[in-house]
Design brief:
The protein is α+β, with helices and mostly antiparallel strands. Among the domains are: 105 residues, Phosphorylase Kinase, domain 1; 215 residues, Orthogonal Bundle (Transferase(Phosphotransferase), domain 1), CATH 1.10.510. It has 13 helices and 13 strands. It is elongated and about 115 Å long.
Amino acid sequence: MTFETYTNRSRLARVQPGMRLGPYEILLCVARGGMASVWAARQHGARGFSRLVALKTVLPELAAPDLDMMFLDEARVAARIHHPNVCEVFELIEHQGVLALSMEWVDGDTLNNIINARGKEPAIDARVAAQIVANVASGLHAAHELRDERGAALQLVHRDVSPQNILVSRNGHVKVTDFGVAKSLGGVHESTAVGKIKGKLSYMSPEQAQGKLLDRRSDIFSLGVVLYTITVGVHPFRRPGESRHQQLSRLVMNRIKGPSWVVKGYPPELEAIVMRALERDPKERFASADEMARALQDWVLASGPLVTDQHIARLVLERSGPTIVDRSERIANLMCKSEDDAAGEPVPGAPEEPVPAAADPTLVPTTSRLMQARGPERALGARATLRAVSSTLTAGALFLLASFVFTSPGSESRLSLVPPQAEALPPAAAASAPGPSTVLIEPPASPSAGLEAAPASESPGAANTRPAAQSPPAARADAPASTPAPAVRAPGDRRTGKGTKPNRTSKPAKPRASTTKRRPLPRDDSAIRSSR
């Protein structure tokens, strides 16, 4: 692919806030370097999942095949490193010709911005600075020990260890980032071209500046320059106004003066660690970044109380707190605005709601049809409503039945089909004034009730006008003594058969409830007035 093709592609795919790169929504540009920009972006996932990430993209005016290869190399190397002090790389994507590297979002600032904060001294507390560098050394050691899938050591060298590539969060977490110019001796990366030096000259080792073979000890020299700068406040071999050639000559030829030459009372133990890391001969330096980290941690423990992440976080908030808070508010406002804009737009790929068909006037709107038309979720609500209504009606019916049923104290209850107005009438009057079939509870007949059975020859409509308080007539003289008195029939007793069976006072017969519906007749008040 030619350079012209990359130039045309970059013009069409310029990254701007608000655009989408695959699942990532660009929010805000947080950093811009010589070759790439870093954006705050929100990653969208399934079912409303989202998270804030850092998205690194190549500058459109520098789009070229070699920068794409650097992106691919950084993605392959950094994605294999998993350490608390290394910024994690998630994935590499390409959208409309734009390559983007998705990385862990660190809510903080670079170490370079922290030491160069406005109105603050460039030097920071020596013990806190030593703890920060010890954390960086632990992350570098994890990168130096990286192996491939077959277990072979990659012999990775970062080659760009500097305060610009060290991130410190507001919680005090230290992260090493930007493995874009990392070089592997295991064959993952291509060799650097002759005469072309990658990295920052101010933090290079002498062998790196001279283009010699590198190993992990080159990163240890760079880390020593970082420790010198943040504890002393000045650079060890860079002077203001010097050219790049003069700076390179001072790095290679001149001997670096110790921190105590600049800062009076500088801790001698810490100075020994710094000067060992800055040895010109790689053999005189620490053999590994882990060895340097343990030396710094031992000095921190021996020189005073333990330095924790809270001490580092306090330093970050004192120097870069307003910048971090302002950026967080801007990102939060952009995310809220994006959510408001997305609320009024249809979700891509979401199924459209079906348009209900026109109602057929010939069809009866049954419950099943209503539930089918409303869909499964509304059908569940309709079923719950029907169950509630059915339960309410059943409870009401039981309550009405219980309100009509009552029991007489001290006696056995039995059912009666006598209308309420016929209970106070004599038997003949009750028979002449039938009413609706009402289920009542009537106490058993008592001898003192004063009621008398109606003659068999008496018509059903005749009324017994004899008051209930009168005593029954005396028995005839010619009647046999053994003939029992006629039994008193219970009102409403409809039993059929030949003759009338005597009423057993010991166990009254239970009448059967009528299954036929009788039409109510007008109330006969004359029988009631005559009985009274």
